[in-house]
Amino acid sequence: MTDDETRAEDDVLPPDPAAYDSPRAAQARARGLSTPYIPGGRDPDADGARREERFYGRLLLAMVVIIVLSGFVLGIVANLAGAGR
Fold first, then answer.
1. How far apart are CA 27 and CA 47, in angstroms?
2. Whether the Cβ atoms of residue 36 and residue 23 lie closer than 8 Å to each other
3. CB 76 within 8 A of CB 70
4. Pseudo-torsion of CA 44, 48, 54, 58, nearest 10°?
5. pTM, whole model, 2 decimals?
6. How far apart are CA 18 and CA 16, in angstroms?
7. Which of 13, 45, 78, 85 has its CA 20 to 30 A from that of 53?
């Protein structure tokens, strides 16, 4: 069994009878949706999601810093090379 197959099986949450009677489920049924409740709203792996958000936040910050600093470096190199004359 591959990791993708294992992950797909783990991502499926079992039905929750208590969630069927929740206000969200009643609203979904009133709207005529095909499922007894509106999926979403609860992340089964909140810690993993926070780790991923921190990683991508740091990556975004690093990319912005690199882009800004590379503009300064290219400007200095162009000035030293005499491109501005």
1. 29
2. no
3. no
4. -130
5. 0.48
6. 5
7. 13
The first and second tokens of residue 49, run together, are 């999601």
The length of the chain in residues reads 85
Q: What pLDDT does 68 receive? A: 97
Measured CA to CA, the distance from residue 73 to residue 81 in angstroms comes to: 12
Tokens of 22: 């929740």
- CA 58/CA 65 separation, integer angstroms: 11
pLDDT of residue 27: 81
Instruction: Please say if the pLDDT value at position 75 is more than 70.
Output: yes
Distance (Å, whole) CA 13 – CA 11? 6
